[in-house]
């Protein structure tokens, strides 16, 4: 009884809108949210199999490129475009997301995660989301739930990086401590990317990480594999 009262008192000192929205984002982007993110490596499995990523430094460099020039940054742009778009413009943004997917498995990755995200958000919050690609779906949910764009983008990128660090821990193999160090080192990058894409347009939507794209393509025919992409 005393513990419950203390908890309630502590919670009452928090700004309710800020704390509730932050907790909602933590829930939406948590590994427990049923989008199956753990099953996807974004081509990382092939890069590790080919010896391109053999340690924490290699992983950090690879993820830094994805955040600043590759798929992670492109997702951040799409998320922000979807967040501010009028309803009639969402299909066009989603079509761009599909058209720019560099391989069959990249389309599969964003389609399946996006569909699962939409279904869960609709079931839990009653927000009518159709089958959208993953970053577009997150952007539309953030708009409907009135979530902060910068924080939504930064936490989306953190979830992306955390998922790939988890894959690398299993495949390199990489120690758990090294995996956490990589994530800490990349946090300023995530925050910077979130700030720079806030007012992005479709002209800012691009990717220059061709090695990652090729790894994703090669993964489609990889003989032995753990992850779906």
Task: Explain how this protein is built.
With 229 residues, the chain is mainly alpha-helical. It has a single domain (18-219), classed as Urease accessory protein UreF, CATH 1.10.4190. Helices cover 68% and strands 0% of the residues. It contains eleven helices and no strands. The longest helix has 23 residues, at 149-171.
Shape: globular
Order of helices and strands: HHHHHHHHHHH
Main sheet: strands, sense, barrel: none
CATH architecture: Orthogonal Bundle
CATH topology: Urease accessory protein UreF
The CATH superfamily is: Urease accessory protein UreF
What gyration radius follows from the Cα positions, in whole Å?
18 Å
Report the structural category: mainly alpha
* CATH class label: Mainly Alpha
Strand content: under 5%
Oligomeric form of this entry?
single chain
Helicity, as a percent range: 55-70%
Can you lay out the helices and strands and say which pair or pack?
Layout: H1 2-12, H2 16-28, H3 44-49, H4 56-69, H5 71-84, H6 90-99, H7 104-125, H8 134-144, H9 149-171, H10 176-196, H11 210-219
Key descriptive features of the protein:
229 residues, mainly alpha, 11 helices
Can I get a quick summary?
68% of the residues lie in helices and 0% in strands. The protein is mainly α.
